């Protein structure tokens, strides 16, 4: 759906050797329509790689899980500013910062995924690319269903991973 090379990877300024993968997607909807897709478990279940056990609309602990066969990860909502920003943690090593900015035709959704291991960046970018495509379809009213695990291979994850590996270095 979009350019698979639209991502950046930069060192995090926390001096802990972490990296920030940044990806953006323009959506043809106002921030208020997109916001619930970031915080409501029923909406997240339609596109997100991990589903929380509660709405992510308030600070505090949350558990997340990709599928019922996967381990439950401890998470935490660190900051919420509807409909502009959500920051939450998945497991011990990954922090996600979602920003929504109004545009002339809707909004720009930007993900900043902070990770400990730079080696995961291209795989994460390929996965997020598929998830953001799936989110775009869902918000547009043409959902295709959540794509996780081995299903991502049928949605061109390997070539996205390879393309992002070349782009991100």
UniProtKB/TrEMBL annotation:
Residues 28-136 form the Activator of Hsp90 ATPase homologue 1/2-like C-terminal domain. Transmembrane segments: none annotated. Gene3D superfamilies: 3.30.530.20. Pfam families: AHSA1. InterPro entries: ASHA1/2-like_C, START-like_dom_sf. Belongs to the AHA1 family. This is SRPBCC family protein.
